[in-house]
Every structure is written in structure tokens, then in C-alpha cells.
Design brief:
Largest sheet: 6 strands, antiparallel
CATH topology of the largest domain: Protein Transport Mog1p, Chain A
Structural class: alpha+beta
CATH superfamily of the largest domain: Mog1/PsbP, alpha/beta/alpha sandwich
Distance between the termini: 66 Å
Number of strands: 10
CATH architecture of the largest domain: 3-Layer(aba) Sandwich
Helix content: 25-40%
Number of helices: 6
Strand order of the largest sheet: 4-5-9-8-7-6
Strand content: 25-35%
Radius of gyration: 23 Å
């Protein structure tokens, strides 16, 4: 009885997320290839939702919102974002987590034809290294965890998650080559504000619901690219399993700006505390004088 009630109203054990009954359909036109998917109504109370254009020319550099700064960087463009709040017991636990979705494409022509699984994996690993590896200059992380090949409506997707060490935050990606030069990402960011919850289970369930609705209507040009790749690399598919992507400690030691920033922030906080204590002592001395 209690379990049924908690599932209905929400709790740390049974977080209450958005319902899928009022899911909306979204359509993206990517140089003739049409991508359709459904999501529940936006419900992240801290972030406003803004509609974005639905039609993109993948080959137009003006539509990319990131230009490479170094050789390992890649062009990318976010096309759709949305977020959902997850709740615990009403009035007591309020919002205990958030799930955010970002749909974006990455342009990487230098890796060769991405419909060759080997080229696709090389491009994806370089992307992951840039964002989660030592050269990202962020906290130590492990990428490509729980790798799976998921087939949705006849299309193979790479599915995995990334985790920063010692952090409740993680994310999960679903990736597919959308042309011989572009990768399409459905990236889910998992925000957990309270430990000891089952939020990650709830997040995965919603991700699966959303991804099950993703349909791709390939353009004639991309169909020709896929056919040429199938003839050149017959039977080639992305692997069903891969080990996590990790980097040696020596590499992390070479890139420690983030740690240095943390140390600087801690030092700054210490100085502020000392100044506050000194000011309090002065005020106390003036009152007793």
C-alpha cells in the first residue's frame, strides 16, 4: 500500500518524473534527412524552454555554434534542448534531480567515411577524449561506460554513459552517423541533487521512452552514401560491446588546471574566512573598549 502511494506521489526511492501521455512530436531537417522524436512537455523549473529552428544545412559553417580552437576540436551545433524535473515527496523533498536532453550534430570530415564503423569509433573516441579525457582540463572521468549497440527502427546507435570521478553528475549519449562526415547525438545530462535515490533508474527509463520514438527518414544523398559504404565494407556494424574509455594517471597529471582552480578557490575561501574572523575580532574589541 505504502509502496503504491510513493510511486504515485513520488519519493527518493520512487522519483516522480514527467508523464509521456502529453508527449510532443519534434522534427528536424538535416540537409534533407528528417529526424522525428517525441518528448514530454518541458518541466525544468529552473530553465526556460525556447524553440529552435527545425531546418539545418549541415555543411553551412554559419550554423555551427562552435569553431575549433585546436586540431583535436570539432565543429558542432546544438539543435534542440529540453529538461525535466524529478520530484520526491511533495512539500518535503521537492526537486531532487533533473534530466536534460541536448540534440546536436558534430562535423568531423578528417576521420574518413563515418559509415565505416572503424572510422566512426575513431571519431567518437576523439570527441570523448576532448570532452572527458585529460586534455579537457576537467575533473578525472571515465567515458564510454556500459557500451551497447541499440537498433531503433532499423538503425544502429551507439549507447553509453560518461562519469566524472567522485561526482553525482553523469551523462548518457546515443550516437549515430547522420552523413559520412557528421555524427548525430542525443545527449542526456543526469543531475542528482540528493544521494541515495533511484534517479538514475528513472532517468534511463525516460531516455528509453524518448529514444524509442526516434525515426530517421534518410535523404537520397545519404542513402547513396550508406549504399556505397555497405558495398565497400559489407556486413560491417558497430560492436555490441566495448570496454570503458580510460586514461592513465600520468596523462591526468599533465593537465591539472581544474585541480589548480579548486585549490585556488579553496585558498580564496580560506582568506575570506580569515578576513571575516579578523573583522569580527576588531568589532568585538571596539565594543569592549
Amino acid at each position: 500500500m505504502l509502496t503504491s502511494l510513493l510511486k504515485l506521489i513520488g519519493s527518493k526511492t520512487y522519483p516522480r518524473g514527467p508523464g509521456f501521455k502529453r508527449a510532443r512530436t519534434h522534427r528536424l531537417d538535416l540537409s534533407g534527412t528528417r529526424v522525428e522524436f517525441k518528448t514530454p512537455p518541458h518541466s525544468d523549473v529552473r530553465v526556460s524552454f525556447k524553440e529552435k529552428p527545425e531546418k539545418y544545412n549541415l555543411y553551412d559553417e554559419q550554423v555551427r555554434n562552435y569553431q575549433p580552437q585546436k586540431p583535436t576540436d570539432m565543429h558542432w551545433r546544438t539543435m534542440y534542448t529540453e529538461g525535466w524535473s524529478f520530484y520526491g515527496i511533495p512539500l518535503f523533498q521537492s526537486v531532487i534531480g533533473k534530466l536534460k536532453l541536448g540534440v546536436f550534430f558534430v562535423h568531423t570530415p578528417r576521420h574518413g567515411n563515418l559509415f565505416n564503423p572503424e572510422n566512426f569509433l575513431n571519431a567518437l573516441d576523439e570527441w570523448l577524449e576532448g570532452y572527458y579525457g585529460p586534455i579537457s582540463e576537467q575533473r578525472k572521468a571515465i567515458a564510454r561506460i556500459d557500451w551497447q549497440r541499440k537498433t531503433l527502427h532499423g538503425n544502429d546507435w551507439a549507447c553509453y554513459r560518461n562519469q566524472k570521478i567522485g561526482d553525482l553528475y553523469s551523462d548518457g549519449d546515443w550516437v549515430i552517423p547522420i552523413t559520412e562526415e557528421h555524427m548525430l547525438f542525443f545527449g542526456f545530462a543526469h543531475y542528482v541533487s540528493r544521494p541515495g535515490t533511484r534517479l538514475n533508474e528513472a532517468y534511463r527509463a525516460l531516455q528509453e521512452q524518448i529514444m524509442a520514438t526516434v525515426k530517421i527518414d534518410w535523404s537520397a544523398d545519404v542513402l547513396r552514401q550508406k549504399q556505397a559504404a555497405a558495398e565497400k565494407w559489407p556486413g560491417a556494424r558497430i560492436p555490441t560491446q566495448l570496454p570503458p574509455l580510460e586514461w592513465p594517471d600520468e596523462e591526468w597529471e599533465k593537465h591539472r588546471p581544474y585541480d589548480s582552480f579548486d585549490e585556488l578557490r579553496e585558498l580564496s575561501a580560506k582568506i575570506e574566512r580569515e578576513r571575516a574572523a579578523e573583522a569580527a575580532e576588531k568589532e568585538k574589541a571596539q565594543k569592549t573598549a
